[in-house]
Specification:
Blueprint lengths: L3 E6 L4 H13 L3 E7 L11 H7 L3 E3 L6
Parallel strand pairs: 1-2, 2-3
C-alpha cells in the first residue's frame, strides 16, 4: 500500500510529466494522481510511457481535447 499520495496538476506538460517520472522512479511507496487540463502546453504523448511502466493514467478535465 502506498504510504504517500501526491496530486500532480499539469502532469501532461514537460515539467509535470518529468516530475511524475522522477517521483515514481525514486519512491516505491508513492501513489501519484496525474491531472491535466490539456491546453496548448499539455500532451497525452508526454505521459504514455508513465502509464505503461507505472500504471499511472492521466486524469483529464471534462470537456478538454483528446
Amino acid at each position: 500500500m502506498a504510504r504517500w499520495k501526491v496530486l500532480v496538476t499539469g502532469g501532461a506538460g514537460f515539467i509535470g510529466s518529468n516530475f511524475v517520472r522522477h517521483v515514481l522512479s525514486n519512491n516505491d511507496d508513492m501513489r501519484v494522481v496525474n491531472y491535466d487540463k490539456l491546453t496548448y502546453a499539455g500532451s497525452l504523448a508526454n505521459s504514455t510511457d508513465v502509464e505503461a511502466k507505472y500504471g499511472v493514467s492521466l486524469n483529464r478535465e471534462p470537456g478538454t481535447r483528446n
